Amino acid sequence: MAQKVLIHGATGETGGDILDGLVADGSFVSPSNPISPHRTQSYQEIAALVRPQSLQKLVTKSLKSRGVKVVVSDLVNQDVEEIADLLAGYDTVISAVATTAQLDQLKLVDAAAKAGIKRFIPCGFTSISPPGGVMSLIRTEKEKIHERIWYHHLPYTIIDSGTWYQISFPSLPSGKVSYAFMGDGNTIVADGNAPNLMVDKRDIGRLTARIIKDSRTLNKRVFLHADVLTQNDIWAIMERKSGEKIEAKHATHDELLAKMHTARAVCMKNPSDPRMRFAAISAEYMVCKYVRQDNNPQNARYLGYIGTRELYPDFEPNTFSAFVDELLAGQAKKLYRDKFEFMQKKST
After folding, report:
1. Choosing from 64, 114, 118, 142, which is the catalytic residue?
2. What is the pTM of this model?
3. Average pLDDT, the chain
4. Sheet with 305-307, side-by-side order of all strands
5. Secondary structure element (H or E) that encloses residue 160, with its range
């Protein structure tokens, strides 16, 4: 029996990877890839929920060419009943919205409950951290979505991924990787030995494809388990593979905490400015990863997560070392390019 999956945010950074992962999984029905009567695995029919103003974008039009059904909805202006009608008949709804649109999911959760969705995946796919103010912007908003899910007794799976390889490498003196660089200015925190859970963002989709078909993950928190590396580990891999010596800045825990408090205060005064929000979220991530050291498998299990290494021992995630090979070969991609160009225009 086919599982019908609806992705909200399928044209974004994470949603695009999830879509790619579902397609690559092979459990995908489209006009060019029909179900064979001789195959017995469960199949997915995939649809993308998009805003009316996004219909004419090239990335949206490309969905149709891949056999993905486009479902149009304006979550802000439509009422819950209308959205529920659009969701009716789908088994799983996956949300992968932008950081600025987390609370838009509240109405989507209400509609999913009304439509009888069998599994709701809220927008997670981020570093491990507890609720309660550690990540006072993005994590707190995500937890409000979880609370609404539990209010409705809506079946769910929460998926978090650690930090992504694509935003975790230092720049090189030669400028060889500057085309894809989106890091923290080559800052090593304290002794550089805080371990962090890391994953190639492309593996988020490959693993999500397994998770949504797995009864063991229903009503659970799952973390995507790939590499666990310190900053010193990352620097060593980059230096060995590039043959370059990386110049590093250094920051103390106190300096990071002070930077976070300042960034939060500025953001509170300018809550609608995406640059201020991004700066505050980035500062909170640094504290979470390197001061509190929340983002590791041990803490994930403490918080009640189960790991994909235990669930899927046959799955071979891409390693950071292999990613660096791609990076040095000029084959990586800079993330959020459109968003950064927008913020630069806003500042001029």
Report:
1. 142
2. 0.90
3. 89
4. 157-160, 220-223, 305-307
5. strand 157-160
